[in-house]
Automatic annotation (TrEMBL):
InterPro entries: Ribosomal_bL9/RNase_H1_N, RNase_H1_N, RNase_H1_N_sf. It holds the Pfam family Cauli_VI. Residues 224-267 form the Ribonuclease H1 N-terminal domain. This is Ribonuclease H1 N-terminal domain-containing protein. It comes from the Eukaryota. Residues 61-95 are annotated as: Disordered.
Length: 294
């Protein structure tokens, strides 16, 4: 409780002597724990004679004290205080001490609630510089320009159906925004996350789940038919985005196989044939979205 003079109740604050100043220093460390990133900052206050200030400051510049005082979080905080309202830092990632870890940007895909509202044909962008559902217009292809085969997108006849598909992919964590550093989309919302890349491990084919042919059924809105014979999950899917989600982690290592057919009956016959000839292989990433049948 404070008194009327601004000090602690029972006495006023003691004035700082003219020949003293307070120097504050801090050291921040970061440690990656199994469930979260722990950041600890220790602050030191020292009373210094004013006549020593200049000498100490000069020494600090020469001996690297300033660069060793903290881990760069100060610039991150100052950047957040002057952002454009998105609560997104606009400064370089924090620099960590040898006991910590580096950080990287992870861009946020467009939430379903922020998708454009329109009707008619459209593009759905699942892995792009900016994700979402956009009108069928060439100018929106800039969101996948330069990404090559890494981009995952497709034409859909109906925007309402495309938004439902996008929402399902988003909720499953299968949508990825990957803008180039100098593109117009590099200013989109992102988070700083630990720059760690755990190894990707797939289950052995013997552990995968192969749906019996008689359990497969076409949906009412299906007009594309993608047969995935080798992927994290096998079956017949009604969009390239759904099929790509099941083969992306395997394409780079030559263990994915898929094909598009013009009709359900043709895709079904080929799936049934592959099932009984033991040509199907389901190898989901351990702990991944499709690792549910093992």
């Amino acid at each position: 409780m404070t008194g009327p003079t601004g000090g602690i109740l029972g006495g006023t604050l003691r004035a700082l002597p003219d020949d003293l100043t307070i120097q504050t220093g801090s050291r921040t460390t970061a440690r990656l724990l199994p469930t979260h990133l722990e950041i600890q900052t220790v602050v030191h206050n020292n009373e210094l004679d004013n006549e020593l200030n200049n000498e100490l400051d000069n020494d600090a510049i020469e001996d690297g004290y300033n660069s060793d005082n903290g881990d760069g979080l100060e610039s991150l905080v100052s950047g957040m205080s002057s952002n454009n309202g998105l609560q997104v830092p606009d400064t370089p990632p924090p620099l960590y001490t040898p006991t910590g870890i580096p950080m990287k940007k992870k861009y946020r895909p467009t939430p379903p609630g922020e998708l454009m509202q329109f009707s008619g044909p459209c593009f759905i962008m699942m892995r792009a510089q900016e994700t979402g559902v956009f009108p069928f217009n060439d100018r929106y292809l800039s969101r996948v320009a330069g990404m090559g085969r890494r981009a995952v997108w497709e034409y859909r006849r109906d925007a309402d159906e495309a938004r439902r598909l996008y929402t399902a992919l988003y909720n499953a964590g299968l949508v990825s925004a990957e803008p180039f550093p100098n593109s117009p989309f590099a200013n989109n919302a992102f988070d700083w996350v630990p720059d760690v890349n755990p190894p990707v491990v797939h289950r052995a084919p013997i552990q995968g789940f192969l749906p019996p042919p008689e359990t497969l059924r076409p949906t009412q809105s299906m007009y594309k038919f993608y047969l995935v014979k080798k992927g994290e999950e096998v079956g017949i899917f009604g969009s390239w985005c759904e099929a790509a989600a099941r083969i992306n982690s395997l394409k780079g290592i030559g263990k994915a196989e898929w094909k598009r057919y013009s009709s359900w009956s043709r895709a079904y016959r080929m799936y049934r044939r592959a099932f009984y000839l033991d040509e199907l292989s389901a190898t989901p990433v351990v702990g991944g979205h499709f690792d549910v049948h093992a």
